[in-house]
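Good morning,

Both structures are done.
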Amino acid sequence: MTADHVALPPGADPAGLRRAVARAHEEFLVTGCWPSGPPRGVVRDSWQRSRSLGVDPDAATPPDPLPEAELRGYRREHPLAAVLPVIRRLLVETARDDDQVAAVGDGAGRLLWVEGSPSLLTRAERIGFAEGANWAEHAAGTNAPGTALALGQPVQIYASEHFSRPVQPWSCAAAPVRDPGSGAVLGVLDLTGGDHIAAPHALSLVRATVAAVEAELRLLRVGGGSARAAVDGPARLEVLGRDRAAFAWAGERVELSPRHSEIVYLLSRRPRGLTAEALEALLRTGEAAPVTVRAEMSRLRRLLGPLLASRPYRLTAPVAVDADEVRELVAGGALRHAMSRYRGPLLPRSEAPGVVEARVDLECALRAVLRERGGADLLVEWTARPEYADDVEMLQAARDALPPGSPRALMLDARLRRALW
C-alpha cells in the first residue's frame, strides 16, 4: 500500500479537499479531461475505469441486487462465513459503537453482510449499500470495497472522490481478504460512515481485521483441511415460525416432529450435552418420566444416525440455528435485517419449558431494541404480524412514533381501542 491509498493524510484540510475534488469530478464528467490538482492518482484511475465501464454517476443504487433467498444460501457456502465471529468482534462492534457500518463482500464486490450503527444502516440502504448489492466498480463506480478489489490493495475513498454523486456524502475504507494458501482474493472488508472514516486510523483498523481473519482462515485450514470444510460442516436448524423444525445436514433436509424439533433445538443450545433427566426437565409439561425421553431419543437416532450421541445426549456436529442468527443481528444493531429474518415465534406451539424460555427471551430482546431504536416503520411492521396484532405495548410504541394525523396512526388508534376492550 502506498500513501496514495490514504484519503486524508495528517495535516490535510477535509473541507477544502472535498470542494476541490467535487470541482474536479464535475469537470471530468463534463469534459473528460483532468484539471490540475486533485484527485489522487488512485481515484483518477478509478474514475476513468468507471467512466469506461459506463457507470451512471447519478444512479441512486447499484444494479443487480441478489434475491434474499439466494443470498442466504450463497452466504452459508462462502469461506468468510467461517470467520464471521472474528469480523464481528473486531470490526462490527467498533462500527456499532462509533456510528459506522461494517460490510463483508465477496471477491466480486457483492455485499454479503452489512452490520453496524442502526441509524446509519437505514441511511446506507437508501444508496443501495445493503446485503446482496453489487458494489464492484463496474456496478457502483469508485468506492472503497469495489476499488480495493480492483487494485487488490487497501484503499480509502473520501466523500466527493466517489464516482457516483448519491454516494458522495459518505467515506469508506476497505481491504481485500486473501486465501492464506493460494493468495486468491476471497472477499473484502469495509468500514463506511462520515468523514472520520477517511482518517488513517480507520484503514489501519480494517487492515488489522483482515490480518486476523487471514490468520483464522490459516488455522481452520490446518485444523480441518480447509475453510470451506468449516463452512460445510455445520448442520442447520430452522425453528422460527414453524411448529415442525426443518433440519438440514449432509445434503439431507427433513421436517422433524414437534417433539423431535424441541429435542434437537435444546441440544443445539448445549454442545456439551444433556442427561436424560436434564433433557426431560426442559421438555416436561406434565409428569412424563425419563424413560419417555429415552424412547424419543431412540427414534431420533434412527433418523440422525451418527449426528446424535448419548451419555450424555448431544449433537456431534455444530448446528447453525436461525433463531441464533436473528439474536446476533439484534446484538449487532442490524434491526432491519433481523426483522427480515425473523419468520415468527420460535416453535410457537411448543409448551416445553426450555423452548418457552428461549422463545420469550428472543421476543423480549427484539421488542426491547425495537422500542428503543426501531423507528416507526419497524414498529408498524412488528404490529402487522398476526401473532403480535394485540401487543398493546408495541401498538402504543408504534402509534407514538408516527406523526399526528398519519393514516397509519389512525389505524393504530383503532386497533388499540379494540385491543383494550
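Second structure follows.
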Amino acid sequence: MTDSSVEVRVLAASGVCGSGFKESSLEAGLARNPHFIGCDAGSTDPGPFSLGSGKTAFPLRAIKRDLRLMLKAARKAKIPLLLGSAGTAGGKPHLELVRQMVLDIAREEKLSFKLALIHAEQDKEYLKKRLAEGRIKPLKPAPEFDAGVIDRSTRIVGMMGEEPYLRALDEGAEVVIAGRSSDCAIFAGIPIRMGVAPGIAWHAAKILECGAAAAVARPAPDSMLATLRADHFDLEPLDPELRCSPLSVAAHSLYENADPYRLIESSGVLDLTTASYEALDDRRVRVRGSRFEPAQTYTVKLEGAEMAGYQSIVIGGIRDPYIIRQLDSWLERLRAAVAKRVADVFADDPEAGKHLFNIRVYGKDGVMGPLEPVREVKSHEVCLVLEVTAATQEAASTIVSMARHQALHLPIPEWKGFITGVACTYSPAHIERGPAYRFCVNHVVEPDDPYEMFPIEHVTVG
C-alpha cells in the first residue's frame, strides 16, 4: 500500500556546477517550495586530468557563480543544498578548493550555516588491506591492479552512495559538499527517506543529475524540478521556453549507460524495464513503474589516475592531394623517420628518448580511430595532431619538434624537388601540454559499511 500523502519536490540547479543556469529558472524552482536543492559538480567525462592534477574541468569563476546562486537560494529558503563530486573529480584538493570557495561566498554574502564536507579520496593503506582480503574486484574493462598501482596512483577516489549524505544531514548539516559521488545519490536519498519508492527515487535522480538535459531542444544547461510521490514522479523544466516529452525523458536513459534498462548503484540496480512515460501537458511528463533491486553485496566504485608522462603536440594541416591519396603509407614512413631520428639524437642516452608517438588525423579517423568504418579519405584537406609523451617535458618537446620537421619535408614519389607538405598552425609549432594522466583503476571495493570510506567533517560557517 502506497502513501498518497507523500510528496517530495526536488530542485536540480543544473547538470553540473560551473556549466550555468538561468537565475530566473532557479527562482522559479524556489517558488515551488522544494525540499532541497541538489547539483552534481563532477564527472569522469573530461578524462583523467582533473583527478590526476587536482584541478577543475570548469573555470573557477564559472563554478563560483553557480555556487553563489545556489547557496543564496538554499539559505533564503532554509533548505539543504547538496553538491556532489566537488571540483570535478572529488579528491582532497578538489574538496578543499570548493570549501574555500564556499567560505569566501559566505563571507561576501554574510551567510551563516552548518557545512559538512564528505571526503572521498582513499587512504592507500586501506585499499591495500582490502586488496589483500580479496575485496577489490575488477569492472570491465579494467587495467591490472595491484599494490604497485595503488602506490603510483596520484590519487584514488571512491564513489559514495546516498548514505553519507543522509548521515551528514542527520548530524546537522545545512550545506553538504561531497567528494566523488554517484551523481544520482545526491538526489535519491532524501526522497526515499520521506517515503518515495526506491525505484521511483533513483529514476528521478538519474534525470535530475543532468539538470534540464532531458528537455526537448535544450538550448543551454538549466534547472529542472521533479515532484516525487510514492509511486511516480513528475518532471518539469523551469525555463518556460523548455518542455519535456515522454520521448525526451525516456531517451535520457540511453545517456552514459551501457544498458538503458539497468543502471548500477552501490546499493543496488535501477530497473527501467517496466517504466512508463506519460505527458501531463505540453511541458510535463509523469513516470511510473521504475523498480530498484537491492544489491546482495554493497560495493563502492574506485577511480584512480596516474601520471603517464609529459606531453607536447604539434598541429598542422595537409592539403596536398597526392599526400592525402597515399596518407596511410605516408604516415608509416613518417613514424619510421621519427624513430630513426630519435635513435640518432638520443644515442648517448636511449632511456631519455623513450616516448609514445601518436598521430591523430582529423578528416580521416581522428574521432573514432580504428573503429571508423569509412576508410576512404574524401576530404580535400586533413588536420594532423602529432603527440609525444615522454618522461620529461624537454624530451617530449624535442621529439615532437623533430617529428614536425620530418613531416614537413617527407617526400613522396610524385614530387620532383624539395617541398613542404604540412602547414603548421602556430609558431613555435610545438605546444607543451604539461603532465599527462591516464586512468589506472576501474574496480569496486566491498567495504564493511557505506560510511567507512567517506569521513565527514563539520564546519560552522559565519
